[in-house]
Amino acid sequence: MSRPRLWLRALLRPRAVEREIREELLHHLEMETQKNLRAGMAPEDARRKAMVDFGGVERFQEQTRDARPTRMLEDAAKDVRLAVRRLAQSPGFSVLTVVTLALGIGATTAIFSVVSGVLLEPLPYDEPGNLVYIDSYFLPESGFDFSEYPVGSPEYFDYRNASRSMEEVAAVSTEAVTLTAGEGDPEVVRAGWVSPSMFTVLRTPPLLGRTLVEADGGPQPQAVTVLSFDLWQRRFGGDSTVVGQVIDLGVEVSEEPLRTEVVGVMPPGFSHPGPGVQLWVPLPLDPARTWRGGHWFTMVGRLADGVSFEDADAEMKAMMEQWAVTYPDHHVGHGLAMKPLLDHEVGEARPALLLLLGSVAFVLLVACANVASLLLARGEARRREVAVRIALGAGRMRILRELLTESLLLSLAGGALGLLLAWGGVHLLLAVQPGNLPRLEGVGIDGRVLAFTAGAVLLTTLLFGLMPALKESGSRPGDALRDSSLRTTASRARLRFRRGIVVAEVALGVLLVVGAGLMARSFRNLLVEDPGFQTANLLFARFSLPAADYSPEESLAFYDRLVRETAGLPGVVGASLIDRPPLLWEDQNGRFHIEGRPVAATAPSCCVGSLVFAGDGLFELLGIPLVRGRLFLPGEGRPDAPVALVDEAAAARYWPGQDPIGQRIRVGDENSPHAAVVGVVGAVTYDGPGVEFPTLYFPQRATPHFAIRSQYLVLRSAGDPAPLVEGVRGVVRAMDSRQAVAGTLTMKEIQARSLARPRFILTLLGVFATVALVLGAIGIYGVIAYAVALRVGEIGIRRALGAKGGEVQGMLLKEGMVLTGIGLALGLAASLAGTRVLAGFLHEVGATDLPTYALVGIGVLVVGVTAAWLPARRAAAVDPLEALRTP
Amino acid sequence: MTDRQADLLQGTLDLLILKTLALGPHHGWGVSQRIQQMSRDALQVNQGSLYPALHRLEHKGWIAAEWGTSENNRKAKFYRLTKRGQAQLDAEREQWDRFSAAVALILEAE
After folding, report:
1. DSSP per-residue letters across A232-271
2. What share of chain B is helix, strand, coil (3-state, %, to 5)?
3. Over the stretch B21-56, which tens digit does the pLDDT of each residue have?
4. Kind and range of the H or E element at A622?
5. Which pLDDT tens digit goes with each residue over A640-664?
6. Alpha-carbon torsion (A871, A826, A491, A470), positive or negative
7. By C-alpha distance, which of A365, A496, A509 is closest to A823?
8. How far apart are CA A192 and CA A173, in angstroms?
């Protein structure tokens, strides 16, 4: 029989193998007997001699069995079977332990997988650690205060030529283009306007054809384009003959349609700078341009060989100091800054993810504590059994091995269940994720994480599963065999230890619950916050007209007609235009100048503010109140008599105590016209909940030509606005079949999006807090039940001496309350100290919010009482005679 | 053999078993008889050492076993040497020769 078969047989059919050994040995005995017979002995003597010589079949069977190398595995298989039977005998304990382990492993693994996929996974480019993102900043000394701002072409060229730290840099920006080529309706997509060097920086080779090359760029770039994989599949059917095709790109900013030749297709997964970019076109870049006031793209670069980020950063800082001297008009307090590309892509999500990671680590700790507690209790329960076995001669190793096997089985079961939970959890997270967590495409169960978590929990299980065994097998069996109860110091010490664990559990649970509670209050504040306008039943539809089809005047006419026709749709209460919807934009880059004020150092404007272009009737439609003065008149906004409205935030910041009406403001450079302020309207949170930024309004007709083709249609409907989308599309199709609705959003969707991240965090924290509380309750229950079990004798005596059930119950309840109380106090103290870390996420809620703490305190005490009540009641039901009799 | 001798000669026992089976297949009892015979009664293998050794060698793949019928018409497990066993036998034989030569040298030294 071959060796693998031998091994298998020994494992799976041990009894058959034993039988064979026995037969073989019996055969030997038989032969020996025969030999003795032939030598002339009497039959009984012959047999007896044979047996004496042989020495005993049983013993040899043992020895022979021992010599087989499969022995270890056979023993292990036996241990496993025994362990399974044992664990099945105490289902409550086994199930609790496995569930606790599973929760701990599952939750941690799921969250950490997301965190790891987003924060730790490298970017999908060659040597991504060497990629940096470069943009500019404005410090207050420049007259403005922007931590992030685009870059201009003189800055780009100066840096490119002077820097020795970079292998290559590229300019990157995006614009909307209307696409009619290929299959499908006309579509508005995001296009990358980039310098060809972007492909050199990122180093991703094309799937078909070629990428953009240096010769394609320059002040007058070649009319070429590279497509993304998605676009190629979606509109060109994955046909490889697309290379060489000429397609038209409708662009807002250029008067001619961009007639480009497709020169290549990129592989799947490539979409720099963002997930929606569908094609790339060379950005016009003229080294001869010297005006340093224009900024319209950002940069990406690759560090040169052997250059560290710190070196490149230092070089850039030194260069900026130089520029401040060389160009005092532009670069005092304004310059370029770099950060690793990964930081740029995920930076915003990092705090939230780290917070979640911290919370989940707590849950893991609580789970481990619970498991430790459960195992200690079980170890205690089996002390007597172990002692008896040792007294009867069982080897220490054997007992250790059995306990080890049990612990391992529990860990494996918990780990397997936890893995399932983690897998489900990751999918759930991806399904409910707020949509603004970057890089979620690559998230899956992470092997590193799984290994770490499983290892941590395994360690706990093994440690606390083995501790009783190690202690017992060393102690004198007599101790355990005698009456245990609280007379032995070892038991008392164990009880103290368990109490300590439970207090720690409760404290951690309290931390989580406080965190969740604070987030909940913050979320509620966000929900009920008044954004400054009426939010019910609003629909926003985005449009982007290509310059090839529409001159500025034609655009105005198009939008006028659009408003008229859609206002007449059934169910529509009113229609107007706005250049960007409230709550959605995250762009606070506008600058303007108030006549008579001093100019800033780096630009011909004094002040910052958001600019919004409002169509006729917008304020009435949205319900933005007029505070002073008047609103725009219909048709107002012609270039000869420009007017403007300011909001209360602007009025408060720039005209405190004064009347802004009549003041003249200007947007753009010194040659732009001044507009007169004719009224003050209520503030609207355009830039996300809780953000109040000064806002200026201009009539839609006054929109500069380069931006006039892009608008949002605003509709308010009588009921749910979603069904209106079809109607709007129909109107557009009838007006001009070449144009497309670029996108639609209802106000509900916008609100949900802006609240998505806090809601996500809150949900998760809520789940963690609940899990922690449940585990803590189990812990308290366990400890009180344990105390009862240990003190059965004492309770019996008390009852026999006349104590009523209620008194005994009260005594134990009090014990439970004390434990909960200490844990609560510790937890609250830790919260006060630690929830500062939550401050960045809280909206109008202090980290030491009293009502939240009070509520948490009451809640936790209630949980503690409930958990202690059941075992306490059981103590009250203890029959004194039974209790005294039980050793 | 006494237990002490058995311990000392475990490795040697393997060698003897392999050699015995090289001369032809046997069951366990047969191997013990052959060894006794060939050593002219000088070596009597203790059953307590023999069967563990046989099982060990089987698990190492140096001998293979088959169930058959023995001389007295009873079911018995027969062992034979495998090719790997033959190679092992040659290797151990060489080792044994070198070892005993070295011991002889020492014993002859003045």
Report:
1. HHHHHTT-GGGTT-EEEEEESS-SS-EEEEEEEEPPTT--
2. 65, 15, 20
3. 999 999 888 998 998 888 888 887 877 778 888 888
4. helix A618-622
5. 778 899 999 888 888 888 888 988 8
6. positive
7. A509
8. 6
Among candidates B48, B53, B74 on the partner chain, residue whose Cβ is nearest the Cβ of A30 = B74
- Cα gap A194→B93, rounded to integer Å: 79
Which residues in chain A touch residue B57, judged by CB atoms under 8 angstroms apart? none
- Residue A7: in which H helix or E strand, if any? helix A3-12
Residue indicated by tokens 């030509």:
A705
What confidence tens digit (pLDDT) does each residue in A222-241 have?
899 999 998 999 889 888 88
Question: Closest Cα partner for A578 from A547, A545, A540, A550?
Answer: A540
Beta bridge partners of A543: A711
Question: A487 by DSSP, 3-state: which?
Answer: helix
Cβ atoms of B66 and A6 closer than 8 Å: no
- Answer positive or negative: Cα dihedral of A622, A627, A630, A636: negative
Contact between chains at A3 and B29 (C-beta distance less than 8 A): no
> By three-state DSSP, how is residue B67 classified?
strand
Distance CA A503, CA A424 (A): 31
Which residues make Cβ contacts (< 8 Å) with residue A609, sequence separation at least 6? A590, A591, A592, A650, A693, A694, A695, A696
Round to whole Å and give the CA distance between A295 and A309.
24
User: Are the CB atoms for A189 and A211 separated by under 8 Å?
Assistant: no
Residue in this structure with the two tokens 């003597």, named with its chain if needed: A45
How far apart CA A406 and CA A404 sit, in angstroms, is 5
Q: 3-state DSSP: chain A helix, strand, coil percent, rounded to 5?
A: 55, 15, 30
Asked if B1 reaches chain A (Cβ–Cβ under 8 Å), the answer is no
The three-state secondary structure class of A254 is: coil
Determine contact: A401 vs chain B, CB below 8 A: no
Residue A879 in tokens? 């029959």
Q: What's the whole-model pTM score?
A: 0.64
